[in-house]
Description:
Elements: E1 2-4, H1 27-39, H2 44-64, E2 65-67, H3 70-81, H4 88-95
Antiparallel strand pairs: 1-2
Helix pairs in contact: 1-2
Amino acid sequence: MVVALTSTKSQGHRPAKTSRIELRATEDDRDLLDRAAMALGTDRSSFLLAQGRLAAQRVLADREQFVLDADGQKEWKRINSRPARNLPGLARLLQRPSPFVTPVGDQPEA
Length: 110
């Protein structure tokens, strides 16, 4: 069982590429990347984006999803099927004004 902690977007539709990413490399590194891209039948930019995306997903995987064995799945289902508890202290806290927002009347004039 894989539990995703972030939303998953459809991979079928990719938005237009409007951002530019620039990087510095040695000629040897550029040539190596070009050879690898050519071996896959793609261009350097597409190769770097695809491989960079995979690397980023691997780095973030343990922060965005986790895998449970059978016992872990049972425990997960048990915990998540419990009814919500009534927490009066939390309810009071959420009713208080935010300390991070200045009330409209207290804002300095521009």
